[in-house]
Amino acid sequence: MSTQSIPPSTRAVRAIEEASIAPAPSPLKVVLRVASTVWSNGKARIGIVILGLFILVAIFAPLLAPYGARQNGFDRSADASAAHWLGTTAAGEDVLSQLIWGSQISIFVGLVAGLLSTVIAVLVGLSWGYVRGFGADVINFIVNLFLVIPGLPLMIVIAAYLSGGGIGMIIVVVVITGWAWGARVLRSQTQSLRSRDFVTAAVFSGERPFRIVFREILPNMTSLIVGNFFGAATAAILAEAGLEYLGLGDTTVVSWGTMLFWAQNSNALLTGQWALLFAPGLCIALLATSLTLINFGVDGISNPRLREGKQR
Amino acid sequence: MTALLEITDLSVDYGEGAGSTHAVNHVSFTLEHGEFVGLVGESGSGKSTLGFAVTGLSKPPARVVGGSILLDGVDIASLSQADLREQRHGGIAMVLQSGMNALNPVRSIRNHFVDIFRAHGHVARGDWASRAAELVGKVELPASVLDRYPGELSGGMRQRVSIALALSLEPKLMVFDEPTTALDVLVQHAVMDTIIELQKKENFTALLISHDLGIVLESAQRVLVMHEGEIVEDAPSRQILEKPSDDYTKMLLSHYADPRAEVVELPGFEDRHRTPAAAHPPTVSSRTRRQDQKAIVVDHVSKVYPAPRRGEPQVTAVDDVSFTLEPGQSLALVGASGSGKSTLAKLITAVEKPSSGSVRFGDLDVGSLRRGQFRRLHRDVQMVFQDPYAALNPLHTVEYTLTRPVVNFTGLKGLDARRRVLELLDTVGLSPVEEFAAKLPHQLSGGQRQRVVIARALASNPQVIIADEPVSMLDVSLRAGVLALLEDLREQWGVSLLYITHDLLSARVVTDNIMVLNGGRVVEHGNTAEVLRNPSDEYTIRLLDAIPNPGRRDVA
């Protein structure tokens, strides 16, 4: 998903640019153009539709869910029926209702943890890419430390250490283990941009390093940052499900991960209740897939060569 | 004898519908067997688009919308992609400007040849080695390059390899699209000579596409001049040189002159008969306006870069150079690429630190400045960059770009800063100023962008401007304007100018003094007109000889 923006530099392209001198685009138009670029990609369109559906389900869970998430007292381990479309759990809860309520947690954790680790990746990656000398070496050491330790074991250790913290704890664990990769990618792009003439020119204009990094360099890597966000959100959703499946989260909260945890605990497969494992698993996979699909379209913003359906 | 290539009423558009651009507009011409024809035009004239259409390589959004291209009586447009591939053997070959970068870095040169032999099967397997050696021999390379990798060859050698690759299919027509533009001046000259020799020996038909009328007139028998998608003139070279009929051709020609001539006149520059005594001093008013004019003193400066790879020697980019740039003076630093001229600019602007020696600006020791102290230097020493397309942040408006140095250096704020920005735009001739202030870089032409870059350099009201090849990326017709602007600023503002270039003609018209650098050393210095008219160093003479000169054929 990492793309290097390729400046349109051939004479032919310049000629076209010069031929069509248009009025300055307003910010709204830029947003619309970016949105239409993403939308024009078939894969991204599918991703947006799936993600949109999940978000709608999460928002309207109170209306959509036939029962409460923790509402038990139905027949235990019942098969699918008109009253319970996906059957009930070993504790007598409605699976469909749990699935609908659970989407809130997955999407919330995904977006928040993705956003936080992107923010950290941007702050670390950009300053790391811009500074030289001792400071860069120190950051390099720390980032490498996080990159070299295997992710899941580290998560388990931290989660066990912070045990019982619930969703907040899970977000912290995911962010701590998830920012380093993005920081590395953004640092490389910063290093490539910092040698551009317009950055040198900003130094000549008397700009302070902070302003050069965040006003000159950062806006030129927006698509990379957006791409990083979707990547980080995907990883966060998978990590959250993984941690909860292992029972490291708060098992009393209803999420797709804890559903899997309880399904495994009650040997759902042995009792023939495949929906208990299959439904939350499929939802996690679909949500992660939708974000990855959107990333295909995001790549097209900065690299026109990746735009689909426009060649030949 | 029928013509080899017959183009009738050809039109090529970019895009479709209302937003389309007519890049090539009802163009007709023919190429006879064995002819060497030049196609000249500035960027945006449609010359490359035409070249791609002729070779059947047009790619969307470019579309051939009308007319026909007949090669030996066969219409290229009607051929399928597969037939077109066949056609490449004994048909048309193309050498691109970036052809030297089209070689695969992980495959040896030999592999590149083998790929073509295998795809077309026109050479028996047993003859592959001898045929490849023969081909590289034709472009004056030793057979040993076949076992080298593209990364081990210089730009000129790689461009020769790509010419040899194009030759391997024994084409009847070779299209050269700016074959030497990306090369160094001296190499450019040598590669062009090879192309001319080859064409004579192999007797293929050549179409040379170039923005440089000098190169084309020097090599081609007949010249097509293209302007805004149309061919405005089609005549033998000598006739173009001696009595051009079209105004556009006349304009292009007027920008060529011999820097060795006694009097050099370019549009916008009357010759000023420079002599050391009569060199234009800054006007009195600008002298008095400035309190403390300071000189840049470069004292025995060397810059040594560490070895690129282990076991290789260190690279000495600048070797014991000393000079003084007096207030109000203009000094040209000339040399081929790798002569150390840009490194010297970096040393003066504190972007790099000298390995030995010192650079001083007044009482400021530039070499020992720390990052935080750069403002002290950049208040007075500013830079104009080579590539106006890279020197402006594509996301910032002209106003933002110019406001920043104004705020940082002059302390003006709000309306005052804005007034100053508009004033700067007016100074560099971009009016209406309000309109230009609101534009983004991609809405400006190359020349306009370079004016913005110059305006930014002026924002701090500097004493010294370092211009690193400020016009080399611009079209001929725009160059004179930018150079005249730099010249005016020097005279009116009393700014001293360090003009870095490989273009001796422009050095002649804008500078009083000149320094010729070769391999990091100063090989010659003195008054510009005197040095160029009576060069004493062999390197200077080679540089002078490498300049394409439309009139040279008459001299030879």
From TrEMBL, chain B:
- Which residue ranges are recorded for the region named Disordered? 270-292
Source organism superkingdom? Bacteria
Keyword Nucleotidyltransferase carried by entry: no
User: Which residue numbers delimit the ABC transporter domain?
Assistant: 5-253, 296-544
Keywords carried by this UniProt record: ATP-binding, Nucleotide-binding, Transport
Q: Which InterPro entries match?
A: AAA+_ATPase (IPR003593), ABC_transp_ATP-bind (IPR050319), ABC_transporter-like_ATP-bd (IPR003439), ABC_transporter-like_CS (IPR017871), Oligopep_ABC_C (IPR013563), P-loop_NTPase (IPR027417)
Q: Which Pfam families match?
A: ABC_tran, oligo_HPY
Checking PROSITE patterns in the record gives: ABC_TRANSPORTER_1, ABC_TRANSPORTER_2
Q: Which SMART domains match?
A: AAA
Q: What is this protein called?
A: ABC transporter ATPase
